[in-house]
Amino acid sequence: MRSAPPDAVVVGSGPNGMAAAVTLARAGLGVEVFEAQPSIGGGARTLDLGLAPGITHDMCSAVHPLAIASPFFEEFDLRARGLELTVPEVSYAQPFDDGPAALAFHDLEQTVERLGAAGPEWRRFFGPLLGRVDDSIWLSLGDKRSLPPTLRDLHGLANIARFGARLLSQAGPAWNLPLSHEHTQSLFTGVSSHVIGRLPGMATAATATLLALLAHDVGWPSPVGGSQAIIDELVDDLEAHGGAVITDARIDHVSDLPSASAYLLDTSALDAARIFSGVMPARIDRALKGFKQGNAAAKVDLVVSDPVPWRDPEVSRAGTVHLGGTRGQMAAAEADVVAGRMPRQPVCLVSDPTLFDPTREVDGLRPLWTYCHVPFDCPLDPTEYIIRQIERFAPGFRDTIVAHSSVPASRMAKHNQNHVGGDIGNGGFSFYRMFARPRSSWHNYDLGVPGAYLCSSATPPAPGVHGMSGWFAARRALRNRFGISRTPCLAPSL
Ligand SMILES: Cc1cc2nc3c(=O)[nH]c(=O)nc-3n(C[C@H](O)[C@H](O)[C@H](O)COP(=O)(O)OP(=O)(O)OC[C@H]3O[C@@H](n4cnc5c(N)ncnc54)[C@H](O)[C@@H]3O)c2cc1C
């Protein structure tokens, strides 16, 4: 640890906390990061859970289009730092009870070909956006306050209008009009499962439109060795610029922290209110406490002896598999979750990293990453729900299971206190909450205390390993607290 007091303190070492820390350190400031858990990385940790010797599991995130496409990571440039990413030929798959699965290839034309009669409408939906993906990325991953910097000309405006039209088409009751075939509908709805909410809806449609577009652009890559490799690069950069991360350091109040000119919190809105209790203006305290949790996820990590025996073997070409069947079946399961009922067949996400990264296999065993959507704070063990859902599309799967570990929604916060009640979005996500996150204010990274900022996924642009919330909050702190208006260069060569 540095001997001089830090200029800036970051609470929480998730991707946003680390993005903030790196940005501040790159501006020449002394930075210390305080992390409650014994390990660094929040939602991008890869840990040995003790299920089988040498096997490691991605605790939260596993698949990372945003860590390539986000403007923060584009600047930080993970690949130029030597991070190896595997990009599956098939970004994601949607198996059905009968017949062949729908597949979204990295390559749009291969997807169109596989979809057969439904292919042209998929091409009409995504093809026109692929020429200038940056506009869609900035619109989705911006601070929801400023215009995308890529908006230089009429082409950019037209492109954003195209993206918006597609998003809106999937957010309301007419969602089957542009995607009229069961395979295209279900493929798109599977991507919506990266947000947990009512279908159709604005938040699910916005996330799905971006992620499905990125599947045909950067693809859906995963780092060799697991998500932790992303965090390791951020930590290396921070340390190379004089910063430090202190683990096992849960912060309950600002008085637990060293004195600094800026405090950036990669925490929940509730924790931010707690940390600045007695100091924060009452109206902001009330607003933060009024930022309600969203729907939840429950996690099951498995060790298996073989690849998942999908009924349609083509599914094994995909990095991510969305389970839930047809659009109608998934919408019904999500409606149960929103209503607080455990669905009989919950929407599940599955990834077998060993298919593309042989380093994950040890002595013939491999990790399998899964989670499912459940009601907020649900105490049920998700294991049987997930196994049954995989068996539905991969008979015989159960026989490959060697060990497993599960975390019900009600216990998710033990591993990351931002996930209260299993809300992995760190606060509800809706059209309103895309903007008013965590509160309705033009300056929503500010906590109303001089030098205090929220920099987690409780702020725009919301969840995902993109580092954007941390980057935006750090840039605001640099401007307002340190008089530095130039965004520091994050390029690896410095
Ligand atoms: C099961 C699951 C699967 C996911 N899959 C993907 C995926 O495949 N791709 C993707 O892009 N995203 C995925 N996500 C979402 C992604 O992980 C998060 O959106 C992202 O990690 C949020 O980053 P963050 O820095 O805001 O917060 P987090 O990553 O949650 O990190 C917050 C950190 O702050 C620490 N902290 C909180 N409060 C305190 C305190 N008071 N004192 C000290 N430390 C504190 C926590 O311990 C934690 O380490 C997934 C999430 C989950 C849970």
From TrEMBL:
<protein>
    <submittedName>
        <fullName>Phytoene dehydrogenase</fullName>
    </submittedName>
</protein>
<dbReference type="Pfam" id="PF13450">
    <property type="entry name" value="NAD_binding_8"/>
</dbReference>
<dbReference type="InterPro" id="IPR036188">
    <property type="entry name" value="FAD/NAD-bd_sf"/>
</dbReference>
